[in-house]
Amino acid sequence: MAVKTMNYAQAAAAALERAMREDPTVVAMGEDIGRGGIFGQYKGLLDAFGAQRVIDTPISESTIMGAAVGMALTGIRPVVEMRVVDFALCAMDEMVNQAAKNRYMFGGQGRVRLVARLPIGIWSASAAQHSQSLEAWFAHMPGLVVVCPSTPQDNYSMLRAALKAEDPFIYMEHKELWGLQGEVDEELEAQFGKARLVRDGSDLTIVSWSAAVHPALEAAERLATRSIQAGVIDLGTIWPWDRDAVLSHCARSGRLLVVHEAVRAGGFGAEIAATAAEATGCRIARLGAPRVPVGYASALEAIASIDADKVERAALEFIDAGARATR
To answer: Which of 13, 14, 46, 204 shows the smallest number of beta carbons within 10 Å?
Structure first.
């Protein structure tokens, strides 16, 4: 077993380097990747593999993604760097109408085996056009697999697995997790559609993903000091998501709090909440960002962010409201 300590960005670079050594069809393409990527997630790859496999592109997201779809249809496995999800909006047609639908529309004759890296979430002091969480948009689109790694281990194992898969992946790292340190077992394989129980607890089920998992866990540990045992589930894969794990825990706790950094209105938490309510009849609460653009000023940015204080407060209000209702 090869276990190393590395950060979230290093884990991604190591996973991609290993994939490129094992499979000569894997290439990386996008803006600034020749200098290692703006977060260091491609560091060292140009020197290792050269400009034919680590391809710096012009600033044109639709061109990058369109070229990647064409490359995938010829048998190449492109890793497509969009820098941040906000910029990927310029390539929605290529992702949603071309990559996602090709396998279905042509009876499986073509396979778009690509990984589109679309970092999500608030990027400190980067304002409204660089701080969005749009995973629900892509979960809505048939044909796409959507993942949100929350740890260095996830970022290593999930990227490796995505580069062996048969479908287009929307791979959503978080813009603020790149420096997060953790142990990485290089032999551990990811299972898409399989959630991770980060912390068990019988009083409340907290479901989250991406960076929001960390304040959710901190809040659960605080709740334990109040004799409230909250379980925390890291969904990991947004589509397909682990219904069995979530519903099983909700049935046991009777309460579900979904926490995500994305705007609460229309967020993917609503899908989880509706499914849990239909299947288990458990009580439901959601915590997400208000429906406002993320502000540049720190005070405005804080309004849209999710931290442990907000998760703890939401959980306490949720449990208190239930107690009042049963009096």
So the answer is: 46
- 67 Rama class: left (phi>0) / alpha (psi -120 to 50) / beta: alpha
- Sequence-separated (6 or more) residues with CB below 8 Å from residue 327: none
Pairing of strands 26-30, 77-81: parallel
CA–CA separation, 199 vs 229, rounded Å?
9
| CATH architecture of the domain with range 3-185 | 3-Layer(aba) Sandwich (3.40)
Q: Which CATH architecture has domain 196-325?
A: 3-Layer(aba) Sandwich (3.40)
pLDDT tens digit sequence for 242-299: 999 999 999 999 999 999 999 999 999 999 999 999 999 999 999 999 999 999 999 9
Q: Which residues are annotated as catalytic?
A: 130
- What sign has the CA pseudo-torsion 246, 115, 117, 141? negative
Using DSSP, state whether 108 is helix, strand or coil: coil
pLDDT band at 324 (very low <50, low <70, confident <90, very high): low
pLDDT in the model for residue 2:
83
